[in-house]
Amino acid sequence: MTDDRLTLEERSLLLEQARHALTFGVLGSPLDALNLDSFPLKLRQPGATFVTLTIDGQLRGCVGALEPYQPLIEDVREHAIAAALQDYRFSPVRPGELANISIEISRLTPPIPLEYTNPADLLAKLRPGIDGVVLRDGLRRATFLPQVWEKLPDTETFLSHLCQKMGTPADLWRKKHLEVLIYQVEEFHE
Questions:
Q1: Facing residues of 26 across strands?
Q2: Which residue from 74, 121, 142, 172 could staple onto 70, CB 3.0 to 4.6 Å apart?
């Protein structure tokens, strides 16, 4: 994402739209349609994002997509609402919480397969703090954004927690060759 980074103005517009969508979604109001032509080109192009909501640094919701399927600005709006109302790990955000919520947006690069030969090779190839990781085992799939390394800096622990998030035993990554994809993010917040 080095040469394709968003400008401060583009980031500001995305955060503004995320806040707007979050508020409307939590209050149960229909979201107004966007006039895409009024936004910079980069925000109109397909983009994949995760929107993370926190209160006092504690996770309150996080939803996103790994692959782009709609304009970046629409993706942010959709995932801001979904993070507030559809993250299965949390009850829906209540109107009284809105003032305390902080929004973080992660714009993803397309995930690419990470080839590895065995568990030790996988550990050696992952880059803590840089790579977001997707694990796939058949129809099961889970991801951690690169920011999760801050809370789980040990690569073995990181992979074990990601297996659990996928709904499998924590040590599956040691026992079975899983499909692993990596991506990076451009992260910004309010």
A1: none
A2: 74
Domains contained in the chain, CATH given: 8-108 (3.30.700.20), 112-184 (3.30.1490.150)
Tell me the backbone φ, ψ of residue 62, rounded to 5 degrees.
-155, 120
Q: In this predicted model, what pLDDT tens digit does every residue of 32-64 receive, in sequence order?
A: 999 999 999 999 999 999 999 999 999 999 999
The DSSP secondary structure of the chain, one letter per residue, reads --TTPPPHHHHHHHHHHHHHHHHHHHHTPPPPPP-GGGS-HHHHSB--EEEEEEETTEEEEEEE-SS--SBHHHHHHHHHHHHHHT-TTSPPPPGGGGGGEEEEEEEEPPPEE---SSHHHHHHH--TTT-EEEEEETTEEEEE-GGGGGT--SHHHHHHHHHHHTTS-TTHHHHS--EEEEE-EEEEE-
Q: Cα-Cα-Cα-Cα dihedral of 145, 151, 157, 160, to 10°? A: -50
With beta carbons less than 8 A apart as the criterion, state whether 55 and 103 touch: no
pTM above 0.70, yes or no: yes
Quickly state the pLDDT bin for 4 (edges 50, 70, 90): confident
